[in-house]
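Appendix B. Raw example, untouched.
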Amino acid sequence: MSRTRFAPDRGLTNRMLVTMFLIGLLYVVFVGVLVVVLRGAWPIVVVIAGVLFVMQFWFSDRIAAFSMGAREVTPQQYPELHGTVDRLCALADMPKPRVCVADTDVPNAFATGRNQKNAIVCATTGLLRRLEPEELEGVLAHELSHVAHKDVAVMTIAGFLGVLAGFLTRIGLQMGFFGGFDRRDDRDDEGGMVLLVVILVSAVVYAISFVLTRALSRYRELSADRSAALLTGRPSALASALTKVTGSMARIPTRDLRAAEPFNAFYFAPAFSAREAASNLLSTHPTLEKRLEQLGRISAQIGRS
């Protein structure tokens, strides 16, 4: 991590390292199985993997920002938003990212960019209308913590294995549907079995990678909450913002939430109400209760110091 004044989190770092190690181990096993099963076709797998990784690492954040309607704004257009980002960047001793606004009533914020030079921080118009200045400061500090910790790059690398496995699963199924499973001679039977093994292995790897990256995403959200609370010295303001945002989600039209849901991993809070969330194992964010509990502990610690 680049040197900033965001507080380090050794507990989170250790959990992230373990999760990344498991993802890396899974990747090695997956590639090894593909090399053995596909034999002469393994260079094609390497090329596909390389192209997918470059595209995901270099372009996924830009595509996500474009898809979420983020537009860069000037200090003249949004002076309070820019002023808050300026103060936080000075406090954290980090370069100022580009500041964007997304025109949607879904109250949320996100940061993206593979490093601090390419970073943007974005707030929605729905968030700006609903939060008090100190609450907005807490949310933006949370997002700047993601930038400082290079969370987008970490999650992109961690999620690459799932993208590759999912891609190979889809390709295998399409090939199977076009006759790969129905051939009759011995050579075609062998090809069909190879195809079936690739599909099954890819599907299993995708499922395991999905669970691991979701766990990593929940760790980073807790870390960003903690870093933001300690940087601003106002964990109660961040807790208030969390409660407001989560409560407001229940009043947003379902169609708007469904449109935002594919980008939950980027957002400050998931774009659906708690009662609609999947189990914690599959969630991109910790529960509201867990986040508020952590902020309560930090508040107590600050009060004692």
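End of appendix B.
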